[in-house]
Amino acid sequence: MQRRAKVQVKVWGDYACFTRPEFKVERISYPIMTPSAARGILEAIFWKPEFRYEIRRIGIERLGGQQAILRNELTSKQNKKPIFIENDRAQRTSLILKSVAYWIVADIVLTKRAVDPVAKYRDQFNRRVQRGQYHHTPYLGTREFVAYFSPISEEDTVESVDMDIGTMLFDFAFIEEGTRKEMEFLRHDKMGTRVAAGFAKPIFFDAKIENGWLHVPIEKYQLLYALEDGKCFTH
C-alpha cells in the first residue's frame, strides 16, 4: 500500500512572525516561514492521527517587508491560577513580516495506525482547501496573525529570490522520558491516543533559499522519528 501522497496549498496574510529562538526576549522573525509553522497550518486545515505531514519545500510568492511593532505580552504562562494582567504585562518590541504569501508543498505520510489508503486523506485535504474549511484558525507563526489559504492557481508564481538564512528551526521532537517530565503531550500509536510525559527537543538545519524555494532535508524527519521512537541518543 502506498504510504505517502503529495499535497500543496497557498497561504498568505497581512502579518507574520516566525520567531528566531536565539533571541530570548524580543521577537525577531526569520525572513521566511519555518517548516514547523508550515506543518501547523496544514494540521489546522486537516489532521488525523493516522498520518503525519512532512514538509518538502516552501515557495515564496511574496517575500514581504519587515516592520517593528510594540506589543503587550504576559510574562507568566496562563494556568489554573488566575493571572492579574497589570502585574504580568510587559511591553516588548517585535520585528515582524508584513504582507507575505507562500506555497507549502508537503507529503501526507501514513502512520502505523492507518488502515485507509493515503489517497483518501489527500482528497479530504484538497476538498477542505477548495472549500476554505479548517479545524481551527491557521496562523502565520503567532496566533494573532491569521493565515488565509487557497489552492495554487495557474496565475500564481514564485519570486526569484536567493538567500542564505543560516541555522533555522526545523521542528520539535516530543520525546517521552520518565526522568525529564517537563511537559505533557499526546502520543498516537497502535494502541490509540494517550497522554505522555517528557520534553521537547528542537531540531535545526542549514536553510538556504534558492530561486524562491526553501528545500527541507528529508533526513531531518528520519532524525525526528528516531528521537521520538527512543532510537537516538538525546542527552
How would you characterize this protein structure?
The chain has helices at residues 35-45, 85-88, 118-131, 219-228; strands at 4-16, 27-28, 51-62, 65-74, 89-110, 148-150, 163-176, 183-189, 192-210, 213-215. By secondary structure, the chain is an alpha+beta fold. The chain has one domain (4-151, 159-228): 2-Layer Sandwich (Alpha-Beta Plaits), CATH 3.30.70. Strands 1, 2, 3, 4, 5, 6, 7, 8, 9 and 10 form a ten-stranded mixed beta sheet that branches. The chain is globular, with a radius of gyration of 19 Å. The model has no long low-confidence stretch (mean pLDDT 89).
The computed structural class is: alpha+beta
CATH class: Alpha Beta
Give the fraction of residues assigned to helices.
10-25%
Mean pLDDT: 89
